[in-house]
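Researcher: Last one for today. Full complex below.
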Amino acid sequence: MPVPLVKESDVDVLVIGAGPAGLMCANGLAKAGIIVRIIDQRSSKTLHLSHEVMAGQADGIQPRTIEVLQSYGLAERLLREGNQMHMAAFYNPSQNGGIERTGRVADIKATTARYPFAVTLHQGAIEALFLDSMASMGISVDRPIVPTSLQLSADKTELYDPNRHPAKVTLMHLNAKEGQAETEIVHAKFVVGADGAHSWVRKTLGIAMDGEQTDFVWGVVDIVPDTDFPDIRNKSAIHSNNGSCMVIPREGDKVRIYVQLTDKEDVDLRDGRIDKAKIGPEKLMQVARKSFYPYSISTKAFDWWTIYNIGQRVASKFSVDERVFIAGDACHTHSPKAGQGMNASMNDTHNLIWKLAYVLRGWSDISLLKTYELERRKYAQELISFDKKFSALFSGKPRSENHEKGVSHEEFLEAFQSFGGFTSGIGVHYAPSAIVNTNHQSHASNLVIGQRVLPHVFTRAADGRPYELQDLLPADTRFKILVFAGDTTNKDQMQRINALAEGFVHPNNFYAQFGGEEPSTMFDVLTICSAKKDQVNYTDLPAVFRTHWSKVLLDDKDMFERAGGQGYESYGIDPVGGALVIVRPDGYVGMVAPFECVGDLGQYFGSFMKT
Amino acid sequence: MPVPLVKESDVDVLVIGAGPAGLMCANGLAKAGIIVRIIDQRSSKTLHLSHEVMAGQADGIQPRTIEVLQSYGLAERLLREGNQMHMAAFYNPSQNGGIERTGRVADIKATTARYPFAVTLHQGAIEALFLDSMASMGISVDRPIVPTSLQLSADKTELYDPNRHPAKVTLMHLNAKEGQAETEIVHAKFVVGADGAHSWVRKTLGIAMDGEQTDFVWGVVDIVPDTDFPDIRNKSAIHSNNGSCMVIPREGDKVRIYVQLTDKEDVDLRDGRIDKAKIGPEKLMQVARKSFYPYSISTKAFDWWTIYNIGQRVASKFSVDERVFIAGDACHTHSPKAGQGMNASMNDTHNLIWKLAYVLRGWSDISLLKTYELERRKYAQELISFDKKFSALFSGKPRSENHEKGVSHEEFLEAFQSFGGFTSGIGVHYAPSAIVNTNHQSHASNLVIGQRVLPHVFTRAADGRPYELQDLLPADTRFKILVFAGDTTNKDQMQRINALAEGFVHPNNFYAQFGGEEPSTMFDVLTICSAKKDQVNYTDLPAVFRTHWSKVLLDDKDMFERAGGQGYESYGIDPVGGALVIVRPDGYVGMVAPFECVGDLGQYFGSFMKT
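Model: Here's the assembly. Have a good evening.
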């Protein structure tokens, strides 16, 4: 039969790979109204059959990632379906030859976390959050498809014009029926390679991975355990004289157990090769049982198992010409024990989505996209350096009479807790750049510029309903202008507020300059007064600071005093004079300014926006 | 064409009427595995076309009703879709001839409410919660169908045998196509008439309504207002010298306004007749505008409007032979201003569901069903008496120089707040009966027997996750046995716990006597220790008190000290010696007992259960 002509099509963004990074990207772009296509090499059938694979990948959703998912409206279902890890337990060698508990602490050491726990849920269920959200917008993953060639135009004019399609990608349909085209050509404005640790996109672009293999070899089993171990539903770190284990409770009654393998018979540590014939889940359970003693642990069946010796590597660059990007495992690989893999991946593309949208809408110059590598590569490097320290501590022998240089419980605990800001994702801190301007930090001293907005409950002026501020900062690609109006019962301050409002609507001000005729497409203005709910009428504020009755908040407790209050204090803002805070579309603080420096906002937006 | 033979069928429960009371009933019975059929006279098409009608009915979901919906897994969506009323504002005549605000308070004065606010949402959306839940079980409303005859067997043997079908109901299909049967006959074990204020079931049974019409005539409009009134998003009670108004904010930007009509031209107060030709929404807005002065209020369109002069009546009985029941508006009518209608209705059938299930399963004697009227008729009478006081106060002239006997702000506010337990539904208190045994109240002095279980957060022993206790008491028709185990670090107490456990599993104990071979089908045992999370291993408790790792709770704060702790104190239970608390399937406390009186539980269950 004659093969049809090769089909060619245009797309704004082609996402290659439908794991968590790729799905976050496609869903976010679609929500932003960008024309996006996402492909994956796995067929739906394979996906269905490979439940074990899906069950096995990735570990937990960390507190910051839950916040991010919430900003896309996806956290509610995650929290309903997943297991929450609140408590961590530590076991060390006891006098009697077995192990004993040396402490229980909060799993997450990040006091500002809105969700102070990690959620464990199999990767298929997490991907389903995105797939269902995308389906509601009429978008699905094209599969099974693999890219076979990728060419990027060398023409600088084409590369700098966001309306052009400089990336030409050839795709092969793996399940093409007879008479159907096996290949097609896609012309994309941008390509995102979210195609995993063995990324075809990365290799095709010739991007090197910097870093090395580790010496530590671990086995993993997913089981429904039968055990008398009292911390089986906690994240438990077991250091015994018979090896180390880590317990990660999962959804339902499932538990994941990581077992360190030190037996040279099974594993050749010099070149990291593992003889899979010599080892199996039964063997891993044998090793685990030794560490658990005097507690017993067994299972009727194995849900999934594997053995790994992972590299700790970061890609040397994250993009080529700001036209093709790599994200997720394609640009960083590390051990899964810290449970960061899926989190780092989703946060990579969360960082990229709004930037792509701004460039594609013609609002920003293409150079805005340089901040993706700047922000996310630095983070990936910190992740690897954290992972090295943590893995070494975890794999070290416990301190004992025979091992005076071993790792003590105190050492491990201190490291565990001091890493909290990192493992929770809460401490992620983007460096100064066009979109992170730290000039006026002192005016909101605790809203760290470059970090995500601290969660806090404020009470809505119009109806006394308490709201978590983060819920009013959805990932809708808009910049949020938080007008901390100060004390609106103070006449002088009301004069300042009215003056500020006049400035806001002046044609020379950033609000009109960059917001255009409909500033609400780019800006969402929220006003937060320090006065109390019996004193404030939202109707007293200037119109630009209350574009809808829901846009005025108070730093006051709710009617039952269950939440709210002291937000100005928590954020480090003057409760009389107030301040302006710019929140980026991804929820990170971009800039702070006192009322008097409202002009500086024009410079901030001018540094990456077109007027 | 020949008309087919009349179709006859059997059903466990026939529910007539698919408003909130009927839907709550059918959904709950279906969840309990009962064969239920629900019919309604409105066609789907009518439902669709009569958006105005749906929008207009019913006012708000009160705190206790939200708790009940949560116990069926339906509250999350309600909270997402509805408007929350947190704040109430009061306006009274000012010196300048208009009105001024005299105060803002919490809308709900019920400090133990889990959800301290009412939710406003149109009735169609509330019905959709049930319809979607039923659809997931394969059940839908048969419509448009009306019952045309109802006969109940006079045979006592048949009436007392729950396996028989003593009710014969003839149904007429209103939209039957040619050649299809227009009538059918249903033989039901039980019939629930939830067919509204003009209930056909009630009239057919010849049940009288006791009570009277009021003198007060009110108009209602649903609008999206354009106004400078600063409390338009609060529940606002306006007493002006130009009439009274009540503002109820609704979902989106909608607001409902109640306007008292005193103009004798429009309304003949002697016989309560209203000339609808003389009045319309514009006129109602005119009246409202007078009360609102000096604030302005207008609208572009009317979503819905009506005028009413409601009766305050209660049915003389709620059932005939415990085989046919009436529920909801069919047995009580009252003014809508207190926002009780839909709440009373749904709570009627919530009370009935588990009782019907127990009788139909052969677990309980049919006499259990007598407690439905006992509990719900008393409540309905209290509701009417509350409504009378509240309506009179609300309709009274405000106190002023010319009206020294008028209602002062303080009087109104005091009444508003003292009614809080009632309007919130939190204070509902069922009288002693077979299922409300108050003998040992002192052992849990604040868990009032006959009231719903106080919400409180406990921390799960196995994993440190905080849980609202109410969420562990779902409406799954099981009795919950709360074993407040006391201080499990105390050796003497552990001996008492172990002794109690031995007693539990003894064949003469209530647990085996009434629970049979699989006690978990009737009982859910939750154990709550007063010891702290670093001290308790859930594995130390006797097996019957931890049938699953999730069944052991601690009276301790969560890992971040954000919730939990002091539960024993709140409930008035001895933190060393503990107590046993029986929670009915509908969430109301049925009995309390000290460990030593575990035998009394046998008497409690024996009074309404078969062994």
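Chain A touches chain B through 37 residues (CB under 8 Å). Residues 48-56 of chain A have pLDDT under 50 and may be disordered.
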